[in-house]
Design brief:
CATH architecture of the largest domain: 3-Layer(aba) Sandwich
CATH superfamily of the largest domain: SGNH hydrolase
Oligomer: single chain
CATH topology of the largest domain: Rossmann fold
Largest sheet: 6 strands, mixed
Number of helices: 17
Amino acid sequence: MSAYDDLRDAISGIVANWPLVRTFVNGGETDVVQTGAGNMPTIAKVVVDAQSLFDQAKTDLIAQKDAEINQAADGVLSQTVTVKTDTEGVKADTQAIHDATADVLTQVQGVASSVVDTANATLAARDAALIGAGVYVNEPTGRAAVADGAAFKVQGDGNLVAASEYRRVNSTTSTLIAIYPTAKAALTVGGFVDRSYDDDGAHINPIRDGARRLLRWFDYTGARRGKLAITQAIRNGLQVTFNPATGQTDISFGTVEGNTPIGARGGYVSTYDDDGTNAMLVVAPDANGVKRIIMAVPKAGFSGGTPAEVITARGAQPDLNSRLSVALNPYGAIMQPVYGAYFLRETRQRLRALLDGDITTYVLALCGDSWTDGSGLPTNGVPAREYYYTRRLVMALQAAYGNAGAGWCCLKNPVGPATFGGSSNPNSLYQSGTGSWTTNTNNKPGASICSVQSSTPGDRITVNCALTKTASVALHYPVSAGVLQYRFNGGAWTQIDQSVGSGLQVAALTGFPTTAAWTLDIEPVSGTIELYGIDHRSGAPGIVVHGLGAGGSNAFHWGSVNQAQLQAAWKALGINAFSMLLGTNDQLSYTVSGHKSSMQTVINSMRAACPTADILLATSPENSDTTPPRPSQPMALFQEVDLELAIANKCAHLNPQYYFGSSISEYGYGTVRGWLNSSLIHPSQTGQRVLEEAFWRVLTQSI
C-alpha cells in the first residue's frame, strides 16, 4: 500500500470516529461514549461524577465526626481540639479531591487536544504530500511540462486549496479534474457533527451548521449524502420543504400572492378564480408532459408582473424577446454584415481629405492569415498574383485616392516559383532570391510575425520595385550576430552590422533612384543575418497598404510573440487603420475562448502602437472542411466573440458570412457558386471578389 493510501485511510478513520470525539468533548452530564475498549464517560460526566464523589466524602466525614462528638464526653475543650484537628483533616482531604479532579480534567483535555492535533497533523501531512508530489506553480507551467492526456497538479493558495489537478488536452488547453482542500478547509467547512440518529432504521451521522440545519450526512456504509432544508415559501406559489421523517425534499405549490394555495404538488391547468376574478395561469410541463401550475397572475396584475408597456410592445408575439430578436444578434446589435463602421474615424477623415486634394496619406495595415497573405507570389507577371482580394483592393483604393507607396514587403520565402511573401500589391513590389534561406513562420515579432535568415555568404534576396517614385526605403530587422550588405541596381555595396542596438532595428537605406524603378540586393557577409521586410514610400499623397498577412497563422500566433517588439514594428510603419481577418486556422487548432483572449491581446497592442488608429476586426465565413474539431465549433462562434470584442473595444467588425451565404451549401466547394476552392478552406477567385467588395464597402461606403 502506498503512503498516499495510508494517508487516505488515516483521514477516513478520523472522519469515521469524529462523532465519538465530538460526543466525548461536547456530550451531556450523563452520556458515555461506546468504544472498542468499553464505555468511556464524557468530559461533562467526569466533572459531575468527581463533584459527586467530593460532596459524598464531605458529607460522610462530617457525619462521622458528629457521632464521635456525641459519644465522647471527656471534656469540651479536649473535644473541641479534636474537632479542630479533624476539620483540618477534612480540608486537606477536600483539597486532595479537588486536585485529583483537576488532574482528571487536564488529562481529558489533553486527550481531546491530542485528537484534534492528530487530525490537523494528518491533513497537513496530506497537504504537504500534495505540494511535494510534482506540483507546479501554475497551470500553464504544468501544462507545458506534460504530454497530452497526462494529469498534473498546480499549487493552491495555501488557505483553503492545497492543490488543483488538471489533465492536459493540448498545448494550449487543460481540463480541471479535482481540487484538494487544505487542512484548514477540511476542519472548518460544514459546521459540526451532531449526534447520530436513525433514518429508516439505518444508523447515520449528520453534519449540521451552527443553527443545527442539516448540511449533509454519512450513512452506515460511509456514503456521503447531501441534504438541503428549505422551508420558506417562495413568492408566486412555489414552496420547498424538507421532510425529516423521510429524508426527502417536498416541492408543493403554496400561496399565490397571499391567496389560497392552488393545491399541493401542483395541478392541471383549469379555470381558476382569484377572489372572483379570472386569473392567468403560468404553467410548465413535467417529465410526463403534464402541464403543471407554476404561478397564477390575477387579471389586474400584481407588483413585479409584466408592465403594461411591455405587453403593448410585444404585440402579437408571446414575449418581447420574440418580437425583438428577429433582427438582433445575441449582443443586442442589429444583425448585419458590418458593425461599428462609425469607429473608422481616421479612415473617414483621411479618405475625404485625399478626395478634397489635401496633401496627406492614409496608411492601412491588412493583417491576417492566408486569406490575406496569398497575394504575395514573388514572380512578376504571374496572373495568380491577382488571385487574392488584397491586390485588387489595393489597386482600387490607390486608383481612387492616390499611390503613396508600396508599403510593407515581407522578405520571407524568397526562393521558389510559387511561395508567399512580398507586398500587398506584388505588381508594384515583390521579392525573389537564391541560396539557402530559412523562413521563420508565425513566431517572430516583426510587423508580419515572420522572418528570413541565412549565414551563407552569396545567398541573395532581390527586391523588385516597379514604381517610378521613391522617397524612402526602410529595412526592418532584429539584432543578431551577423553583418549584411545591400545595394541598389547593382551598385556599390553598403554594410550593416546587425549586432548593434537591441530589439527591433529600422535602417533607412540609401542609394535608391527616386524617379525610376529599381532592384535591391541583400546578402549575408558574416555570421547569421535575420530580416523582417522593407517599407517603401513614394512621397506622394495617397494610400499606403501594408500587406501583413501570415499564412497559417491564428490569433494565438499574433498574441504570443513579443508584444513590445511587435508594437514597435507597427509604430514604425505609421499605421492609421488596422484590419485583422482571422478564424479559419483558429477553428482547427484553437478554442473559441482562447481565440477571444489572444484577440484581446492583439487589440491592446494595436492601441499601444498606434493610439489613434482605427481597428476593423473581420472573421472568416464557414468553410467546407469537416476535420475535427471544426464541426464542434462552427465559425459562427468565432464571429460572435469577434463581434463581442468589437463592441467592448469600440472597433468595427466585418462578418463576410452575410455576403457568402447563411449555409456552406450555398457557396462551398462543389456548389453552384463555388466560392471556396478545392482546399475547402480558402476562397476561390470568385470568392475573392466577394471579399474585395466587402472590404471596399466597409472602408469607403459604410457609415
